[in-house]
Amino acid sequence: MSAFGMIDAMKKSYEQNRALLKRKSTFEILKERGFKTNNKKLIIKKASPECISRLREKLQAENRRNLKKRLFVLFLITLMVVIPVVYYFFIYQVN
Questions:
Q1: Rounded CA gap, 10 and 49, in Å?
Q2: Are the CB atoms for 35 and 42 separated by under 8 Å?
């Protein structure tokens, strides 16, 4: 009797996969209907080169700050691991 359950599960899986293949992606659906929010079309503004360069500098500064924070946290974690190991092997074992 358990074979019927497996066959049924295979059939359902097959049907679901077929439905996924026939389905359009969300981007294609939005492209056909138009990108709308609250029944208004989206207006995509063109950015000036100055605005883009300011945004780029701002993002680079933010990335540098995040990198410094991550390196500091990594350094602290490394110290928290290394100090007990050094203490155990060099100070505790000598006495």
A1: 56
A2: yes
Buried b (16+ CB within 10 A) or exposed e, 37-62: eeeeeeeeeeeeeeeeeeeeeeeeee
Q: Where are the domains of the chain?
A: 13-92
* pTM of this structure: 0.46
**Environment class of 6 (CB within 10 Å of its CB; exposed 0-12, middle 13-18, buried 19+):** exposed
Q: Computed over its alpha carbons, how large is the radius of gyration of the chain? A: 29
CA 53 to chain centre: 25
Per-residue pLDDT of the chain (95 residues; tens, 9 = 90+): 567 788 888 999 999 988 888 888 877 777 777 666 666 666 778 889 999 999 999 999 999 999 999 999 999 999 999 999 988 888 877 65
**Residue 54 DSSP class:** H
